[in-house]
Structure formats: structure tokens, C-alpha cells
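Module 6 notes. Inverse folding takes a fixed backbone as the condition and produces residue identities as the prediction. Think of it as a translation problem where the source language is geometry and the target language is the twenty amino acids. Below is one complete input and output pair. Work through it position by position during the lab.
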């Protein structure tokens, strides 16, 4: 017997002993889709691709970032700094040769960050136009509970008042979206806050539990049992895996306290208690927690647009956990102070490779998360960039740009394209067009472009 199609907005609901409501969003299940898996069964709306800006501060070593050969498949090889992404090569579109034409001497990091995300110069301390994630959100976020979501791994701060140093997500001038650096706060926002009520018959299952155990999952067991009766075998397995991944995040947050009262979580389930990087070092456990939360937010379509700020522009981060010789300010001492050229600053190289390992963890999680008829990485465009090219002297050429994912078939993947001296803003216009936006220009002043990068889109 064919089950009645399930609304995409269906959630599992419960109530904690404190009176706080619990909502567990569901992944994109077969029962929610048409027979081909390309559209929602109830609304006939096409399944939207997802967009992520994945940002890291302080640039790269261009001589070790840029692949030596262009082409597709076996015609090109990953560079040394991209080697941590080797298992994901088929999902990568490396774009080299671009120049950020908006970099201004003396304020290289803030103007570089603005150029890489908005395509426009600064106006005082404010950006002039919306960032690419918000441009995309304007087009694809209708109906999603969160228009966009902004997360970060380390709050290690730069020096400077410009908005473009403190976030890479801007709704417009003087309207920035600040990242949340506490995984517990993100968890509570996704599962403990009031979300829109679903409109299908699944809404009748809501708010049934009167008693609660320790976990938010325990509070939705009755609702979950009712839902399981409607699902096929594949969907039941996917829901079970989904709930177990949430349980794993809970366990991680309970054991990765960043200081303070370790019993605070028992006092108030809605209070942020654990996980935030308190030492400005972008630790692996915080990255892992944010990776899990990001994948859940995208898979459950709490949002279709996400900014993942691994580190902020010009971040004074310390990668001391990597090695004894890394206990220095990565921006001031290592990037600017260490001797070497664009191919030979060993400590910079070590920091960038660690950053790419963390990116690999993010992309691998997306790849391993089912979504519709494929997985999250197949369904996403992940725009990876930074606030400078070579951090030592703030070069503006060979800007790091990487597209990861296949955007629902709109990117081929496994390619390296080189555009010597071309405008970095073309990457933004290309991303917008890949996401289906009917735009023919983007940016302002020296960042304004009217054509995308040739040959990148399918």
C-alpha cells in the first residue's frame, strides 16, 4: 500500500520538564518526494539546491595551494595544501588565477573579505552590498524556518572596526549576520526554539508528551513512534540514523565543556553550556560539533543557506594543539613574521593544511548524509574562500577559491580552471547563476562584473 505523502515541514515534537518545547526536524525522506526524487510530492516544488559559504582567515601559500595542471579527472592533481581533500576530489572545482581588485593598501583584510563575499568596496566600516549568501537567500529561502544560519568555529578576533572583519554574512550596509560560536547555543536554536507549525496532518501528532527524560530525543519518542508507522523501510532506517546522529551531538556537547559549571546543562536544558572555543585555537572538537550541526540544519531544511566561518578574517588564532612550535599568533607572528616565500613558510603550511582537514570533515559529512535521492554534497554548492591570498604581504592575485559539491547537477566536479588576472567577483556571479538566480551582474566599482567564469557551470 502506498503511504500518503508527508509534508516537508513535519517535525517530531515533545515537551521537557522545564516546559521548553522540543522540535526534532526530519531529513528529506522518500515519502516527501515525487517518484523521481526531484520535487516535493505535496507541493510539486523542485527540491532546492543548498548554498554554503565556508570561510577561513589569513589566506594560503599560493605556491602550495594552486594545482600544477588544469583540466578534469586524471588531467589534474590536487596541490599539497589541497591534499586533505583527496577523497573528495570528484566533488571539487578548483578555480585559480583570480584577482581581488578591491583590496586597499593598509586595510587589506577587511577590503579583501568584503571583495570575496560581496564584490563591492567598503563604505567606511560597512559593506556596501549584501554578501553572496544573502543574495542567494533572497531567492531560495522562502518557506525555510531560518532564512540563513551563521556558525563559527573560533571567535579569535581580528583587530579593526570594519564589519567585514567580524562576519562574512551581510544583509546589506550596517546589517551584518554575526556567527554563533557556541555549539550548544546552535543545538538549542535548532531543536528547542519554537518553529513554524506544520500544515499537514502530521501536525495532529504534535505536543503529546507530558513527561521527559534526560535527552531531547526521549521527549519525542511517542511522536516518533506514530510517524514510523507511516514510513517505508528505507525511510524508517533514515529516521533512526538521523536521531542517532542527534544523540551523538548531545553526547559530544555534554563532554566538551569550555569551562564554567559542568552541571549547568542539568539546570537549564536551553542554556548554552559547552563547546565554545575559549582559547582562540579552533579546536577539532568544536569543528566536529559545528560540522554535525551544519549537516543537520541543511538536511532537515531548517535553512537552505549557511555560512560556516572556520576562522574570521585576520583572526589572531593559535593552532597550539597542532604542534609545540605552533603556539604563536597565526596572523601576526606566523603569517607575517616567518621567513619564506609563497611556497615555503612551513608553519603557515601546517595551519592551512589543518584548516583543509577541517573543511574535509565538513564536506565528508555532507557527502555521507542522505538527502532526497542523493546526498547533501551532491545537492549543495559550497563556496570556499578567504580574506587574502598570501598572508605575509597581503597579495591580491591567486585568490583562493574552491567550489565544492555538485549543486544538484549544476556542477560537474573534479576540475581545475585557471583564469589568470580575472576578477574575483566573477566567482560570485558564477555561484549566483549556479544557484539558479536570474542575475547578469554583481558587485560595484572595480568589483562589478557582467559575465561569469566560462566553462564552470554545466
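Target side of the pair, the amino acids:
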Amino acid at each position: 500500500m502506498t503511504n500518503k505523502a508527508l509534508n516537508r515541514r513535519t517535525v517530531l515534537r515533545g515537551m521537557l520538564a522545564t516546559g521548553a518545547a522540543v522540535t526534532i526536524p526530519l531529513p528529506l525522506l522518500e515519502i516527501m518526494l515525487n517518484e523521481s526524487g526531484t520535487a516535493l510530492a505535496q507541493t510539486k516544488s523542485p527540491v532546492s539546491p543548498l548554498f554554503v559559504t565556508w570561510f577561513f582567515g589569513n589566506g594560503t601559500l599560493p605556491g602550495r595551494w594552486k594545482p600544477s595542471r588544469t583540466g578534469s579527472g586524471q588531467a589534474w592533481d590536487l596541490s599539497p595544501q589541497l591534499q586533505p581533500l583527496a577523497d573528495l576530489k570528484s566533488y571539487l572545482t578548483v578555480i585559480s588565477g583570480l584577482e581581488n581588485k578591491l583590496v586597499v593598501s593598509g586595510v587589506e583584510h577587511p577590503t579583501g573579505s568584503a571583495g570575496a563575499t560581496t564584490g563591492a568596496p567598503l563604505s567606511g566600516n560597512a559593506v556596501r552590498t549584501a554578501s553572496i549568501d544573502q543574495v542567494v537567500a533572497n531567492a531560495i529561502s522562502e518557506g525555510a524556518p531560518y532564512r540563513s544560519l551563521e556558525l563559527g568555529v573560533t571567535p579569535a578576533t581580528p583587530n579593526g572596526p570594519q564589519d567585514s572583519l567580524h562576519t562574512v554574512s551581510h544583509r546589506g550596509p550596517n546589517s551584518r549576520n554575526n556567527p554563533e560560536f557556541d555549539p550548544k547555543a546552535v543545538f538549542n536554536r535548532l531543536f528547542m526554539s519554537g518553529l513554524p507549525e506544520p500544515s499537514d496532518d502530521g501536525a495532529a501528532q504534535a505536543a503529546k508528551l507530558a513527561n521527559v527524560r534526560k535527552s531531547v530525543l526521549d521527549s519525542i519518542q511517542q511522536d516518533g513512534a506514530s510517524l514510523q508507522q507511516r514510513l517505508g523501510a528505507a525511510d524508517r532506517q533514515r529516521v533512526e540514523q538521523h536521531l542517532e546522529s542527534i544523540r551523538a551531538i548531545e553526547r559530544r556537547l555534554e563532554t566538551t565543556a569550555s569551562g564554567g559549571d559542568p552541571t549547568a546543562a542539568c539546570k537549564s536544558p536551553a542554556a548554552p553550556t559547552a563547546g565554545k572555543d575559549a582559547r582562540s585555537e579552533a579546536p577539532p572538537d568544536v569543528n566536529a560539533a559545528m560540522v554535525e550541526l551544519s549537516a543537520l540544519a541543511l538536511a532537515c531544511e531548517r535553512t537552505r543557506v549557511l555560512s560556516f566561518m572556520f576562522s574570521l578574517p585576520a583572526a589572531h588564532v593559535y593552532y597550539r594543539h597542532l604542534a609545540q612550535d605552533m603556539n604563536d599568533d597565526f596572523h601576526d607572528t606566523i603569517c607575517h613574521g616567518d621567513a619564506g616565500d609563497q611556497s615555503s613558510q612551513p608553519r603557515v603550511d601546517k595551519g592551512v593544511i589543518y584548516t583543509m582537514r577541517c573543511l574535509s570533515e565538513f564536506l565528508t559529512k555532507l557527502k555521507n548524509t542522505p538527502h532526497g535521492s542523493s546526498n547533501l554534497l551532491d545537492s549543495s554548492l559550497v563556496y570556499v574562500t578567504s580574506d587574502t591570498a598570501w598572508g605575509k604581504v597581503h597579495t591580491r592575485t591567486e585568490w583562493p577559491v574552491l567550489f565544492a559539491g555538485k549543486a544538484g547537477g549544476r556542477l560537474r566536479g573534479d576540475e581545475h580552471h585557471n583564469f589568470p588576472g580575472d576578477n574575483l567577483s566573477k566567482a560570485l556571479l558564477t555561484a549566483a547563476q549556479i544557484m539558479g538566480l536570474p542575475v547578469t551582474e554583481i558587485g560595484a566599482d572595480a568589483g562589478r562584473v557582467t559575465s561569469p567564469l566560462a566553462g564552470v557551470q554545466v
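Reference fact for the lab report: The first strand starts at residue 11 and ends at 15.
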